[in-house]
Automatic annotation (TrEMBL):
It comes from Senegalia massiliensis. It comes from the Bacteria. Residues 1-21 form the signal peptide. This is PepSY domain-containing protein. Keywords: Signal. Residues 43-100 form the PepSY domain. InterPro entries: PepSY.
Amino acid sequence: MKKRILLSLFLVFILTLTACGDGDLNGDDVDNNDEVSYEDIELTPEDVYDKFMESHSDSKIREISLDKNMTEYQYVVEGYDDENDYEVRINPVSGDIISDDTEIIDLDDEQGEITKDQLSKIESLVKKALDESKEGSRVNEWSLEYDNNILAFDIEVIEDNNEVEYTYDLETENLIEKDN
């Protein structure tokens, strides 16, 4: 009797674990963004701008970034209008909206506006940072936001397994700071 109960519990446990899995035994499920490299990213910053504006057409963008958590990249767009702050997270490969959060506006936040035209400079600054880095370096993440009335582009590069951060003035494309 005890063996049957233990066997039944064991089978329930195994079935529960199986049901909780994602069914991807090979680990190559593209939809979950595993092992995506910077080069795999399909959406440009301009595409992400348009995606944000589809949901929040009367708002302005304060910050746009490409964040990396372990092996997963996400675009994060922060915007605002007269009443609300918005944060939209977008999958950079599929373009799917991961989350779209709204809060009452925080008037203490710097309220600069990033335009779509300004985003066209990002790719050249990514290339510039990689050119200034050691050979074999790669992009980890980047952000674009106003800092003391300067539209600052921060990019984190992995160089010999170390993080190196470059900060550029987006308008002039001049290097403001390099932090090892």
